Amino acid sequence: MNYTSIKNFGPNAVSEINNPLTYCLTNDLDNAFIHGGQSNVLRKDSRPCQLFLSDYCSQNWDHFCELGSQNTNISFPNGMQTPYGCAPPGTTQGDMLLRNTAERKYLIQMINGEQIFELFDPTVPNSPMISSWRPRGQQVGGYGQLNMAPIYSVNPDTIDNDIVMHKILEKPHIAHDILVNIYNTMKRLNTLERLKGTKLGNFYRIK
User: Which of 132, 165, 178, 196 is the most buried (most CB within 10 A)?
Assistant: First the structure.
């Protein structure tokens, strides 16, 4: 039998109410009033919100990202956390957002990984897609993240104007593995010297 797809069932107009920012940056009470039952799943500290905001903020760190970075809650885990890197215990949700944004912004390759996509809110047909990584060929819900390896790098010509990196360098302990990875990648590609004179180059003590 052929069933009607959710995207073809009912109105398909875009509504600002369904903007993920209204789920991910509002308090639980407001979220519940706006989104009803979905607010129990898609709350500001949820994995879908962490995935959405990391992509959103990696493209443009704006006042919404700044607001999210001020979240001092330490009660929820990092939904993007994987065995190849994690934030230290006690990291706030705001600092997790910063770290997750850096993971997305500076990733140039995921060895043995494939990117998968899903609707942010599966009950809204035109909800934006969010993405995550899993080992290549692995079924959904499987294990094996240790087989993946991220490769990070930066553009030396623009890194001094990068607000995300500025913030990371103010709190390097939340992303030390990313910073080490960038250093090793650029050294391997013979581009490390191009960081000389930049804030990141000074952090690496490149003379």
Answer: 165
Residue 199 domain boundaries = 16-108+150-203
In a domain, 5, yes or no: no
pLDDT by residue for the chain (207 residues), tens only, comes to 555 454 554 455 455 566 888 888 875 654 544 545 454 456 788 899 999 999 999 999 999 999 999 999 888 788 776 655 677 778 899 999 999 999 999 999 999 999 999 998 888 788 889 999 988 876 555 554 557 899 999 999 999 999 999 999 999 999 999 999 999 999 999 999 999 999 999 999 986
Please check whether residue 100 is in contact with residue 80, taking contact to mean a CB–CB distance below 8 angstroms.
yes
From residue 51, alpha-carbon distances to 3, 12, 96, 131, 206 in Å are: 30, 24, 11, 7, 33
Which residues touch 49 (CB under 8 Å, ≥6 apart)? 20, 23, 24, 42, 43
Q: What's the number of domains the chain is made of?
A: 1
Which tokens in the block code for residue 148? 């993946």
Dist. CA 134–CA 143, nearest whole Å: 9
